[in-house]
Every structure is written in C-alpha cells, then in structure tokens.
Amino acid sequence: MTIPALGLGTFRLKDQVVIDSVATALELGYRAIDTAQIYGNEAEVGQAVAVAASGIDRDELFVTSKIWTDNLAADKLIPSLKDSLSKLRSDYLDLTLIHWPSPKGAVPVSEFMGALAEAQKQGLTRQIGVSNFTIDLLRQAIEVVGKDAIATNQIELHPYLQNRKLVDFMHSQGVAVTSYMTLGYGKVLEDPVIQQIAAQHAATPAQVTLAWAMQLGYAVIPSSTRRENLASNLKARELKLSNEDMGRIATLDSGLRLTSPERLAPAWD
User: What are the residue boundaries of the NADP-dependent oxidoreductase domain, all occurrences included (predicted)?
Assistant: First the structure.
C-alpha cells in the first residue's frame, strides 16, 4: 500500500472544529486523515469519519495515528493502540507511527519497534512507521524490523527546512517521506519567491508549496478549518511546477526548524 500523496492533518483541531474539518474534507474528496493520540481528537475524528464516510468503503480511506511517548513500553503500546482504534471506530489503522522517539532513550528503540511490529502482525495496523526520527534512530529501527517494514518517517519539512541529509538517507533505505508543517505555520506563504511562482501559475502560495513537496515525492498532510482552503489545497495535486520553479524553491532552505520541543527532540541531523 502506498501512502496517499495528500491527506488531511488534524493537529491542534479539537471538538466540533475537527469534526467539521474532517467531514468537509471527506465530502470534498480527501481520503487520508492523519491524527495522533496526543492530539486528543481521535474520538471526534472517528465520529466524523463514521458519519461523513457512511457511503465510502473503509478500504478507500487511509487513517493514520501515532503512538505517544507515554505508551512506548512493550506492555502499553498495543493496549494504547486498541484504545485508539476504539475511539476511531475502526478495526485497524492503515498506518501507525511512533510519534517521537522515547525521551532520553528511556524506552529502547528495539522495545517499541518490536511492539509496533507485533501490532502489525496482529492486524491492528496495516503499515508501521516513525515520526521525528533522525538518521541514527532510523538505523536503529531498521535493525529491529528491517527497512522494508518502515513505511515512512513523518518529519518537519518545508521550503525553509528541506532536511536533505535525512531525506537522502531515507531514499537510500526505501523509506517514504511524509512532510508535516509543509506550509511552515504559514511563514512560507509570505515568501516573495513562493508568491511570484504562484502568480505565474495563477495558483495560491499554499498550492505551490504543497505541489513542490509532492513533486519531490513527499506525502503532505496540511490542515485547515475553512472549506475554501481545504478545496484549494486539494487542487495542488493538479499543479505542475517547472524545473526552474523547483530550483528557485530549493534555494530557500535556511535550516529553519519550527518544531523542536525540549523534552522530546532528538539530536537533529
């Protein structure tokens, strides 16, 4: 199974806001939804999917969630995943990720990756992967489950943080890239280069940025609470940027990392 190129992110969306966002996205044609245990919205996402997707076959949907660091121990991971499934009203996830590596290595990579592989073996998730993993942590994970078992590493990646060293390693191992915060909290949308390219294509800066990432082969999961933005982002799949466009965006990389929580962040590459 390949990971859909464009899905809906739900980070920071709560209660009726996330229900409306997911319902609208599914109505517009989104089929991939990304959530996480720590987002505190799995039940609402499940509710929205159950109602809005009543006419959509489950096999057409691609639902991702992420195991929080408190649940990485072998005796907690699978029970926490089963709880997530209950909230999401599903018998399985399409993709389950380790959200962050264990802070200070409290739970060994071998332990939580082994438990995640067991969850896959039990049919609780179709694919497994990681998030916010460095090259060293990816190597450790690969040693446990093999590179073919890791579907993706979901990482902060946008024009200002292109993460080329890590991406090159992931490509060498056949691990797909999922970009989160592709729009850089909106900072990227104000960039003159992005705006110029958008004007040339009669597109929005968001469409240009998402199209840039997808043309590089990355999956993207932007979030929005507005119907017009959800619809507009979806159209990024149809936008084709030129080699010159891609080259200009490549020059924007400044190493600007926007997400690096002190308690969770590993030693970034």
Answer: 6-252
